[in-house]
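Task 17 of the worksheet. Students: predict the tertiary structure of the chain below and write it out as structure tokens. Keep your answer in the requested format; marks are given for formatting as well as content.
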Amino acid sequence: MKSSELRQKFLSYFESKGHKILPSSSLVPDDPTLLLTAAGMVQFKPVFLGEKRVDYTRAATVQKCLRTTDIENVGKTARHFTFFEMLGNFSFGDYFKKEAIAWGWEFVTEHLNLPEDNLYVTVFEDDDEAFEIWRDVVGLTEDRIFRMSADDNFWSAGSTGPCGPSSEIMYDLGPDCGCGRDCCTIGCDCDRYLEIWNLVFMEYNRNEIGHLEPLPKKNIDTGAGLERIARILQGGRSNFDIDVLKPIVDKAVSVSGINYGVDLEKDISIRIIADHIRAVTFLISDGVLPSNEGRGYVLRRLLRRAILHARLLGVESAFVNLIIDAVIKTMKDAYPELQDNASFIHRIAGHEETRFMHTLKQGLSILDQAIAQARSENRKILAGDFVFRLYDTFGFPLELTVEIAEEHGMNVDEETFQSLMEEQRERARVSWAGVRELRHQEVYQEVKEEFGETEFLGYEVDEAQATLRAIIKNNVVATEASEGDEVGVVLDRTPLYAEKGGQVGDRGVIETDSGLVEVEDVQEPVEEVYAHTGKVVRGKISIDQKARIAVAAERRQSIRRNHTATHLLHWALRIVLGDHVKQAGSLVEPERLRFDLTHFAAISRDQLRKIEELVNGKIFENYPVRSFATSYEFAKESGAIALFDQKYGEFVRLVEVGNFSKELCGGTHVGNTSEIGLFKITSEGSIGANTRRIEAVTDGAALDYLYAEEDRHLEVADILKTEPEQVVDKVKSLLQTIKQQSQQLESARKKIIGERVDKLITGARQFNKTKLIVDQVEAVDMDNLRLYADLLRNRTGTAALLLASTVDGKVMLIAAATQDVVRAGFNAGSLIKKVAPIVGGGGGGRPDLAQAGGRKPEGVKEALEEGLKEIEGMLSK
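Model answer:
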């Protein structure tokens, strides 16, 4: 049975049982507590918790999933993957254990026709109810039902959230697939007993302190591994032999040129490549980009592991996109978005592969030197601070450092590395945690439960009447606040916008008969509850008072201009750079706008100019801007752009600019584009792998920016004593003069060095027929020092040399020799490695030329003395 038939058979069966068939959700979950979608139940978590209502009580899906918990087993066993497909049927307070067990057994035995003699089941050790259903309803004998501990049969999707006891259907693949031990039975970690069906009886919610609380309703969460079942149905020895994996494996074999099935270690590498690139393809398609944090790091780690294993097989050139093509071809019928996103996937994966190959080259060289130095010092452990610098500076992964160190019989100080990583994370947290940090969410949750949600009026008005529902002082709900108190105020309705979607919160005033609050910021610590933070500047305020709420109108209008400008910018970027551009973040303030985008290369000056022209063209043409609420489905069907990581409900706000821009957006906007006035990009640059940032200003701020640029231009003209329109020609002329003078200076420097070289030759030692030149010289940089070496070799005929120079407290060393001396036993690279540690440095090179740097000038004399002995020793041999 093909995998496509298995998917359809599963969905059809549960549709006949009254289940609503739903599509797979993204690998990027709509849940801040989860990094990736690791199970079919993830998209239903709010339903299980009673936080979301749906119009069905039964559902079935085929869910794409990704887990890295077993990444070290991938390729080594027949059953482990990072990316896999999970068949799932779910009940939300409808049927429970009896129906779930009976239907699972019926589907496996009657619709898939798996032989009952090969099937066993497990239950949680205290779940007598499930045990009795298997025995009394299904009819299994007790010797085919195994009670297991919580480690095996109590399931959850994370450290918190819905969970419960489980019951699994296991398939006996036979002794040929097992470990061969007499004690091998259900629960053995070998490949013989394969879990194919997991029934989770979702009864509890594990809270943040680990306590189990009963869920509002009892639920069912079934997870069945498509690949595992397909392996049985298709008769494969391994999950990698099935129809959705074998073409990918075959492509990896073709790229590597190895004979699959001959060498176990090479086979493991092939399977890792196939699995990891399949995962990479789906991650990028779902909007994940390589980074050093979160899910982006998962993607980067998978891709780099695949590249490393390809290198182990001798693959030196780019190959990732060849495997991606095989993934897309194999999986596109079930997941057509792969074909739609193929170009984007290729660009991101290919660019990351190129970057990592460069990183690998640099990092391996540095790591080799560190290992060699550690060995020379009889150390068995690589220092954690060195490993951290290797990671922080070159992006060299810890896992790779550990693997290479182990190959050389060394360990890594991972404790120090992790400590430094945590210090870095803490610095990052401190840098972004500021006045807008959402504080004490619990207080506002209580306010919501007591007083309900805040109605937002800001789309229609800038001023409104409202009632004070709650006052928060010192993180405690209070009944009143007096002049000088810093407060958070919750109203029943407000025209002030709370920060979200990249737009900053409004400022304004809350005025009652008895007092006045100046609002400095508005946040939404709990969904639909607006916290107005500020200070009581006059009198006092009390709960239940009526108040006038007014927005700082000029500031709001500047924000409107900048927010609509971001939509025009987004439109123009897709025109100029391509449809692969996606918004990766934004900031809309009254003074400026910032727009982060996914793009794999720097944006050229001509492209930026074209983007500005397009945006200003739409501003000058005075297009209307319309905002209205509609259904999410209608908005998507009309071609509106949605952010892949944004949470949307059934109804959304759609912002249209003319007939060319449609975006889902909850922010505030101008009424027509001419209100923006003028648009000017002020900067563009990289903020991470495959992510660019553009900053811009509008209206008066754009004019101020242009005036400042003009003033700087005029100031430069005054300094150069020329007219503004002649500044460029004047600068070119000055640069040409500087170039000529630099050439003259370099020529004089070479002449001086030539004279010093003659003196060095005159004072050279003679060893047999070879001149030995070991001395400290004056050189401003390494290029100067190499010039000494070249001139000495050219003028002496037969010579070996070691020169040192110090500049600004740093040491430069160079060793060199003529070719006949190299043939006689001289090796510049070995010489440098010997003497460089004396000056507190390291280096290397070829037998005829090598160089090093150091940080201990006081060691130069000793280094030269040791170097002379080393040279004489080489030539004596």
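Marker's comment: Residues 428-439 have pLDDT under 50 and may be disordered. Residues 827 and 847 are 4 Å apart (CA to CA).
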